[in-house]
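#lab-general

N.A. 3:47 PM
ok so I finally got the sequence cleaned up, no stray characters, all 370 residues accounted for. can someone with queue access submit it? mine expired

B.Y. 3:52 PM
send it over

N.A. 3:53 PM
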Amino acid sequence: MFKDIHSVSLFQELLRNLSYIFLVLKICIDFYDSQNKIKFIVLWLLLIGPGLIVSYVTHSITLLTTLVFVLCAYQIDFDKLLKKILIINIVFVVVTVLSSCLGIIPNLSFIQEERVRYSLGFTYPSHLTSFLFFNTLIYIFIKKNNLKTKDYLILGILSVLCYCMTDARMGLICTILVLIVFFLIYNYSHVHIPKIINRCIVCSPLIFAGITTFLAVIYDKSSMILLFLNHCLNGRLGYAKYILGKHGIDLFGNYIEWHGWVGNQGVDMISNYNFVDISYVKILANYGIVVFIFFVVFLSLLCYKAYIKKNICLQFIIFFICMYSVVEPRLIELHFNPFILLLLNQSYLLTHTEIVELKNKFLKKYKLKR
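B.Y. 4:20 PM
back already:
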């Protein structure tokens, strides 16, 4: 059926165009049902306006479509949506992996540093690991404290099997860490989480974004500490530094011709590879300061909302997504990370009262310091 990547891309393009049609219908329905149509139009212009500028600068509509999906998720029941996404993802992954094993679609192999990595039907080996990581989070979000020991074991075994074929070490480490932490949370709920850890989790989007961006900016091969960190991150800091140095940081991003291991046949990857895996640096370099601030701030507000509502499950999920985004560029990629749809969802937005309380806390703290 699909014996080459070009055929798969055509099928993917067909599905993408169909999703755009449904998206337009959803926007029309939302506008028709909106009680305050002026507010609806203003909100869309405020978000889509910068998105259009970034799309023009970067020559890509990827960010724009992501923002449209985020806006369309405003009134959606996210719990029900996640259940549907999980079912679709499981079917999609199983069919893809089986099809690659049966030779219906290509099972690409990549040789890197004498390691053979298989993609199992995806365009790159780490893609399957990323799907497993995010679908593990989705499953935990749906089940919460109803998770059984066998659930953790099955997910753990799947992670190890996935690693054996794809050799995606970072994905394995992050997924196993997720399983261990949530097992402890739900089986030892009587143990009190220290206040300092809670605060770090609430601020995790700011912390991870700030630290990784800062390290990328100051990275220097002459520093033994930075060189060691770069080695631990498989060279990610070095590539991040290179991109920031070459393209700089602009308000609405830059056009960057990415050269990764996917879709660059005929390109000398030894000398031309420039792909950035650190989500925060990739967003900042490619989409600019405005988009970077938007996602980091709204992720932080979402985490704070989960904290005041004592939604410990969502708190840790955001924390792990932010942690995973240090090693993989999946933070705002909807096909991997559906939790980004929560940013403007009415059930998870801060209310006016909560915003006032947050403002008063900061003002009170500032006065005490003075």
